[in-house]
Structures are given as C-alpha cells and as structure tokens.
Amino acid sequence: RENLWNKTREAFRYIYEHHVEEYDWFFKADDDTYVVVENLRYFLYPYSPELPIFFGSKFRYPQYVKQGYFSGGAGYVLSREAVRRFYEQALQDEERCSVVFETEDLQMGRCMESVNVTAGDSRDAFGRKRFLPFDPAAHLANSDTEDPGYWYNEYSYYKPLSGKNCCSDFAISFHYIPGYNMRMMDYLIYDLHAWGSSYRYPPLPPTKTPEEAMAVAEAYPIKSVQTTAESSTHTPSTETTEETFSSFKP
C-alpha cells in the first residue's frame, strides 16, 4: 500500500504514453481482486470509450469529492477519454490532483471530478452492484451490512443490498480473494454445472446515447453521513489520510 497513489498515477501515465490508442477501456484492480472479464466486457458494450466516464463500486465523501469515488479494492475502469483527460489535464494540476495524497481511490475520484470525468452508475436494472468491495460471502451472509451504523452502509453511494439479492447476476469483481480462493472462484464460475439446468443469456444491450450513458442516480440518503469537512472525523489531510483510512478496507 505504500505510495499506492503515486504508483497508480505513474501506471496511467505509462498507459497513456504507450497504449492509450490500442484499447478502449483500462481497468485498475488490486492483486486480491477477482474479475469476471466476460461480465466487464458485457457491461461496457453499450458505452463509447470516447465518453469521459469511469465505473466501479461507488463510495461517498461529499466534502472532498461531490460526485463520489470508486473503491480501489473492487477495481475501477476508465474509458480511453478518461485516461486522456487524466494525463493531459489532471496530472498537470497538482493543486486538485495532488502527488502527496496517499489514499489512492479517493484521490483518483477527485482528479477525475476536476477534469469533468463522470463517475458512472454501474448497477444493474434491479439496483444490484456489479463491482463488489468484499468477497462473495461477506455480501451474501455478513450481518454487518445489515447494521445501519456499519461503515460500508455509510460510505456506499448507493444503498447496499445483502443476502441472495446482494449482487448482480453479472457481477464483475470481488475484493479480498486470496490466491487459493481464486482457483475456487474459477471452478464455481467456469467449471461447475447443475445437471438439467440451463441459463438463457440476455442479448447484448443497445448502444447508449451520451445522455443515457452519463445519467447518474443520486446517492441514497442516510442521516449519519457527515456533510462538512469541519464536522467530519475523517477529514482528508496529507498528514493523517493514510492512518485515517486504514480501517476502511476497500
């Protein structure tokens, strides 16, 4: 985690300088993030990579990033245009895209907001998340998510769902997956079949207009979220940010 933000900055700098015209989308994740790439491609299919947009598991910190930011652990994906703006504009503005800030995902959100890159809505038609900041068991069975005071419920931009309805049928990513569970996930997703059952895959979605793509639902209301930096016990600063956010797992 040391210098993670600057490692991320430099990774996207390298991408821009060497590969930005070779691909449409660029996905950043941790080494313990499990990603179903087929579902990522399915989700991105209707979106133009020339739109200034990125997607992930959206958190809120309105006193620092008004439109929300994406959990680094669940991963986030930038369009080609988002990478262009990050390199050509955000990296040139150290006041709004600081090099000394250590909380990678929060700072990426601030940088993207400063260059008008939209933090998109990646939920499915039922409001279920596709990018998940914990492992499947935590979302399916963890009673912590049912506690209104649990930090995830306060920081999640959209209302978290738990139990069988926690996650999209086409979930893209899960976090905190150790190496041995990566193999288990592979088996459960790609090799295990229930005899006699079949799944009818939906067709590819139609291409979204720019207006449809950039439409973002508002955050769900909760009373416990601090709205001003003065009243928050988690105010970002270059001296305390890393320590303050160390308990915020994603």
From TrEMBL:
Which parts of the chain span the membrane according to its record? none
Q: What is this protein called?
A: N-acetylgalactosaminide beta-1,3-galactosyltransferase
Q: Does the keyword Transmembrane apply?
A: yes
Record localization: Membrane
Family per record? Belongs to the glycosyltransferase 31 family. Beta3-Gal-T subfamily.
InterPro entries recorded for this chain?
C1GALT1/C1GALT1_chp1 (IPR026050), Fringe-like_glycosylTrfase (IPR003378)
Which region ranges are annotated with the description Disordered? 225-250
What UniProt keywords are attached to this protein's entry? Glycosyltransferase, Membrane, Nucleotide-binding, Signal-anchor, Transferase, Transmembrane, Transmembrane helix
Gene source species = Anopheles culicifacies
Q: Which residues form the Fringe-like glycosyltransferase domain?
A: 18-117
* EC supergroup of this enzyme: transferase
Kindly list the organism's lineage: Eukaryota, Metazoa, Ecdysozoa, Arthropoda, Hexapoda
Which GO molecular-function terms appear in the entry?
Answer: glycoprotein-N-acetylgalactosamine 3-beta-galactosyltransferase activity; nucleotide binding
Topology relative to the lipid bilayer, per the entry, is: Single-pass type II membrane protein
**For this UniProt entry, what's an example GO CC term?**
membrane
- What's the Enzyme Commission number for this chain? 2.4.1.122
Coarsely, its chief localization is membrane
Q: Where is the composition biased (Low complexity)?
A: 227-250
Pathway-wise, it operates in:
Protein modification; protein glycosylation
